[in-house]
C-alpha cells in the first residue's frame, strides 16, 4: 500500500465534522478503495477549542488557514468555509501552492469558476466539487463520467432542499408561504437568513455548474435567470393540483439546437434558469417531497435518468467530499492530461454556445387571472392569446377566493379565477400577451404566471 495522502481541512463546521467522522469510521473500507489511506492531518478553524473537541488527537488544529496552505506536507486542501470572500482567496492560494482542492462551495465555483479552474489547470492540480451540487447525490460524477457517451439534451433538478420542504408543506398542509418558511426554520432547514434558498440563488449556483458539465461551456452564473418561491400563493398550488400538476422549484438547463437555423447555422443556445415550475404529478420528480433533492438528466443514448437523495447535511455532503478525496488519491500521480477533465470536456474543447436570455426561452405556462365574471371576458383573453399564436391546453374557471385587488374592487362576488394552461411558446411572446391582458379593465388583479415543464 502507498503512503497516506495528507489532507488539510479549512473549516470544521457541519460538513467538516461529517467528513472527519466518516473518514474515521470507514477508514479501512476507503483505504481499500483508494489504494492508500486518506488522512486529515491538519484542521484550520477560528474556533480552535471546538475543532479540538471534534478531532481529538486525530489531527493538528490551527487557527491560521495560511499555516495549513503553506504546509508542504499536505497534498490536498478541503475548503469548507463557504461564500465567495476569504474562501476564494484561500482556494487560489492553495492552488498556487500546488495543492489539489476539494470544495463544496457552489457559490464560489458558479461565480468564480472560470478563474479558479484556469488557475488549477496552470498549476496541474485538481479542483473537485461533487459536494457543491445536490449534496450526497453523485450527480457531478454521473454527468461527467457515467453519461459521457451521451449528448445531454437537458437537466432539471430539485436542488434546494429548503424550498422543496416549504413547497411540500404548502401543498400537503395548505400553508401559506410565510407559515411554511417558519416551519422550515423550526426544522433547521432554512437559515435565519434564507435569502439564497428562497430567491433561487442557491439552486442557480448549482444548475450553473451542471450546465457547464452537461454542455461543455464555461460556468456563467451571471447569465442564469433566477426566480424564487417568495411570491407563490397557496391558491396556485391548489389549482395546479386540480389540473394534475405540482409546483417545484426547478433548476433547468437545456440545449436549444432549434435556434441554429434561426441564427443562420450558428451555435444554437443553452437555457439556464431557476423558477417555480408546474410538473405533471405523475412524474417521479414531482413526488420528491420534503428536503430531498432529485435531478433528472436526459441524454440521447440513455434516455431519461433520475438521481435522488439527500441534498444537504453533514454526512451526505461528507460522502461527496470523500468521494472527491478518493478520486484525487487515485489520480494525483497521473499526468494532468490523463485525468478526467474538471468540467467533463477537455479544456480546449469548451464551446462558446451562448446562454439564452429569458425572452428566448421556450416553455409552457400556467396563468391565473382574476376577472370580472361577465359575458365576453373569456373571449377577449383567449383572443389575445390567439393573436400572439399561443395555443391553449386547458382552461379552468372557479369563483374567486376573494380579497382586495389591485384595481380597488372588493373581492368575492362577480369575480372569477380563470386558470389557463398553455402549450409551449417563446417567453417574449407571452410577456407581450400578458401586458395586453393585464391592461383589460375586466382583469382585476396582477396576473399570476408560472412556467410549466412536461419533462417528457
Ligand atoms: N441550503 C441548501 C438547501 C443546502 O436547502 O438545499 C446547501 O446547498
Question: How is this structure best described in words?
Answer:
The chain has 16 helices and 17 strands. The strands form 2 sheets. Strands 7, 8, 9, 10, 11, 12, 13, 14, 15, 16 and 17 form an 11-stranded mixed beta sheet that branches. It has a 6-stranded parallel beta sheet with strand order 3-2-1-4-5-6, with helices on both faces. It has 3 domains: 5-128, NAD(P)-binding Rossmann-like Domain (Rossmann fold, 3-Layer(aba) Sandwich), CATH 3.40.50.720; 140-310, Dihydrodipicolinate Reductase, domain 2, CATH 3.30.360; 361-452, 2-Layer Sandwich (Alpha-Beta Plaits), CATH 3.30.70.260. It is of the alpha/beta class and 456 residues long. Helix 6 runs parallel beside helix 11, helix 8 (161-173) packs across helix 9 (177-186) and helix 15 packs antiparallel against helix 16 (427-438). The radius of gyration is 24 Å and the shape is elongated. Helix content is 36%, strand content 24%.
Secondary-structure map:
Layout lengths: L4 E6 L3 H12 L1 H8 L3 E7 L3 H8 L4 E3 L2 H5 L6 E4 L6 H11 L3 E4 L2 H18 L3 E2 L10 H8 L5 E7 L2 H13 L3 H10 L8 H4 L2 H15 L9 E2 L7 H9 L2 E12 L2 H4 L6 E12 L11 E8 L3 E8 L3 H18 L30 E11 L4 H11 L4 E8 L15 E8 L2 E2 H12 L9 E5 L4
Parallel strand pairs: 1-2, 1-4, 2-3, 4-5, 5-6, 8-10, 10-17
Antiparallel strand pairs: 7-9, 7-11, 9-10, 11-12, 13-15, 13-16, 13-17, 14-15
Helix pairs in contact: 1-14, 5-6, 6-11, 8-9, 15-16
Bound molecules: L-homoserine.
L-homoserine (HSE) binds next to helix 8.
**Helix-residue proportion:** 25-40%
Rg on CA atoms, Å: 24 Å
What's the tally of helices? 16
Q: Quaternary arrangement of the chains shown?
A: single chain
- Classify the fold: give the CATH topology of the largest domain: Dihydrodipicolinate Reductase, domain 2
β-sheet strand percentage: 15-25%
Number of domains: 3
Low-confidence stretches: none
CATH class of the largest domain: Alpha Beta
Hetero ligands: L-homoserine
Count of individual beta strands: 17
Amino acid at each position: 500500500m502507498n503512503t497516506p495522502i495528507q489532507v488539510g481541512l479549512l473549516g470544521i463546521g457541519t460538513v467538516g465534522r461529517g467528513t472527519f467522522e466518516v473518514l474515521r469510521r470507514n477508514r479501512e473500507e476507503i483505504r481499500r478503495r483508494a489504494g492508500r489511506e486518506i488522512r486529515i492531518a491538519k484542521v484550520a478553524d477560528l474556533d480552535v477549542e471546538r475543532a479540538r473537541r471534534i478531532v481529538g488527537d486525530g489531527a493538528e488544529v490551527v487557527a491560521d488557514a495560511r499555516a495549513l496552505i503553506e504546509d508542504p506536507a499536505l497534498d490536498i486542501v478541503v475548503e469548507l468555509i463557504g461564500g465567495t470572500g476569504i474562501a476564494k482567496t484561500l482556494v487560489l492560494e492553495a492552488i498556487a501552492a500546488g495543492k489539489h482542492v476539494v470544495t463544496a462551495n457552489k457559490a464560489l465555483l458558479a461565480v468564480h469558476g472560470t478563474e479558479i479552474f484556469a488557475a488549477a489547470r496552470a498549476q496541474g492540480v485538481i479542483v473537485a466539487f461533487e459536494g457543491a451540487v445536490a449534496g450526497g447525490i453523485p450527480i457531478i460524477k454521473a454527468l461527467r463520467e457515467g453519461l459521457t457517451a451521451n449528448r445531454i439534451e437537458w437537466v432539471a433538478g430539485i436542488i434546494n432542499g429548503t424550498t422543496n420542504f416549504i413547497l411540500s408543506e404548502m401543498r400537503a398542509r395548505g400553508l401559506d408561504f410565510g407559515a411554511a418558511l417558519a416551519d422550515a426554520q423550526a426544522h433547521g432547514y432554512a437559515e435565519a437568513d434564507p435569502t439564497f434558498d428562497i430567491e433561487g440563488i442557491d439552486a442557480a449556483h448549482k444548475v450553473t455548474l451542471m450546465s457547464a458539465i452537461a454542455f461543455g461551456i464555461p460556468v456563467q452564473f451571471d447569465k442564469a435567470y433566477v426566480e424564487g418561491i417568495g411570491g407563490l400563493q397557496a391558491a396556485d398550488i391548489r389549482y395546479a393540483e386540480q389540473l394534475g400538476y405540482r409546483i417545484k422549484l426547478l433548476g433547468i438547463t437545456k440545449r436549444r439546437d432549434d435556434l441554429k437555423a434561426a441564427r443562420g447555422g450558428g451555435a444554437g443556445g443553452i437555457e439556464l434558469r431557476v423558477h417555480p415550475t408546474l410538473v405533471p404529478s405523475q412524474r417521479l420528480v414531482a413526488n420528491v417531497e420534503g428536503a430531498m433533492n432529485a435531478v433528472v438528466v436526459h441524454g440521447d443514448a440513455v434516455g431519461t435518468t433520475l438521481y435522488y437523495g439527500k441534498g444537504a447535511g453533514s454526512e451526505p455532503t461528507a460522502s461527496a467530499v470523500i468521494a472527491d478525496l478518493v478520486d484525487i488519491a487515485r489520480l494525483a500521480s497521473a499526468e494532468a492530461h490523463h485525468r478526467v477533465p474538471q468540467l467533463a470536456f477537455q479544456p480546449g474543447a469548451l464551446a462558446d454556445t451562448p446562454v439564452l436570455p429569458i425572452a428566448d426561452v421556450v416553455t409552457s405556462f400556467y396563468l391565473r387571472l382574476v376577472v370580472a365574471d361577465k359575458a365576453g371576458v373569456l373571449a377577449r383573453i383567449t383572443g389575445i392569446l390567439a393573436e400572439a399564436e399561443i395555443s391553449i391546453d386547458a382552461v379552468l374557471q372557479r369563483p374567486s377566493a376573494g380579497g382586495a385587488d389591485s384595481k380597488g374592487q372588493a373581492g368575492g362576488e362577480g369575480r372569477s379565477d380563470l386558470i389557463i394552461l398553455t402549450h409551449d411558446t417563446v417567453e417574449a411572446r407571452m410577456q407581450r400577451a400578458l401586458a395586453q391582458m393585464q391592461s383589460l379593465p375586466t382583469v382585476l388583479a396582477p396576473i399570476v404566471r408560472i412556467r410549466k415543464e412536461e419533462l417528457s
